[in-house]
Design goal:
The protein is an alpha/beta fold. The chain folds into 2 domains: 72 residues, Arc Repressor Mutant, subunit A; 167 residues, Rossmann fold. Helix content is 57%, strand content 9%. The protein contains 13 helices and 5 strands. Helix 9 links the parallel strand 1 and strand 2. Helix 2 crosses helix 3, helix 3 crosses helix 4 and helix 8 packs across helix 12. It is globular and about 70 Å long.
């Protein structure tokens, strides 16, 4: 897939930047290219930093200031989705079926992303999360518009291994009742990827105010919730996937479930579950 040079430049510099400038980059990448097209003051307000902090970022990255950055963004702006890029890119060989190069490119990106993801989530990290998931009073999981599917998968599988694994409810009133009963023995697992979910952030911050512990699965640019996490699982840049990082989120979830199952040794529970399933 063709890369956006401005987004790539911001991403490459991200981990070397001070916290205030990282906040600016998160806003720019979350709403690229549109976040760059307003005023410097508006951009700084969205990131929760001062205009001078934002200005220093564009000087540091070699754009000569915000005006130079905006000019570069306008020159390269592309209002196209990742899926649209795949289906509109012409094939390399006119004799090939149109779908062939798209499928090969997607497979290559998925493979590279999966390799990077599995390398990033090592055994000590899996065991830290497994200890939390196994020993928690209750486990609550949530995600954004797509990553909620990974949260649902975690809960469905974890509920077979132990009691008290639940999805965070959708409505504000139900979420408030959930937070009301949270405490230090409870664990929240949040999947938060660009574009970062304000609803996820609101629930997690309320849960943390009640001393619940947080496992956060996020992307290379880090959810704004990263500082709240007891355990942070950060997927590498290549795990963005051809369309969305869902395959890699599920892969991480599989590893966490395997590590948790090894800690719980739930053979008796699973056997009883199978028996009940046959009779219901």
């Amino acid at each position: 897939m063709e890369k956006d040079p401005i987004a790539d430049r911001l991403s490459a510099a991200y981990h070397e930047l001070p916290p205030g400038e990282r906040a600016i980059v998160r806003v720019l990448l979350d709403d690229h290219p549109f976040a760059a097209l307003g005023s410097l003051r508006a951009l700084a307000e969205r990131a929760g930093v001062s205009p001078p902090t934002a200005s220093r970022l564009f000087e540091r990255l070699g754009f000569g200031g915000f005006a130079g950055f905006q000019s570069a963004v306008r020159d390269g702006a592309r209002d196209r989705s990742r899926l649209l890029e795949y289906i509109t890119r012409p094939p390399g060989d006119p004799a090939e079926p149109v779908e062939a190069p798209h499928l090969r490119r997607a497979a290559e990106e998925l493979r590279a992303g999966l390799d990077g993801t599995l390398a990033a989530v090592d055994e000590p990290l899996c065991h830290r999360v497994a200890a939390l998931l196994a020993e928690a009073g209750a486990v609550w999981a949530l995600g954004g518009p797509l990553s909620e599917l990974a949260a649902e998968y975690l809960v469905r599988q974890l509920a077979s291994l132990r009691p008290g694994a639940r999805r965070v409810p959708e409505s504000a009133h139900a979420r408030a009742r959930t937070v009301l009963d949270l405490g230090p023995s409870d664990v929240v697992v949040a999947y938060d990827f660009r574009r970062y979910s304000s609803a996820t952030a609101a629930f997690v911050r309320a849960a943390r105010a009640h001393d619940a512990r947080l496992v956060l699965v996020t992307d290379a640019w880090e959810s704004p919730l990263a500082a709240e996490a007891e355990v942070l699982i950060r997927l590498p840049r290549e795990a963005a996937g051809p369309i969305a990082p869902l395959a890699h989120e599920i892969a991480v979830t599989e590893l966490l479930l395997v590590a948790t199952a090894a800690r719980l040794a739930p053979a008796r529970r699973l056997a009883e579950l199978d028996e009940l399933t046959q009779t219901l």
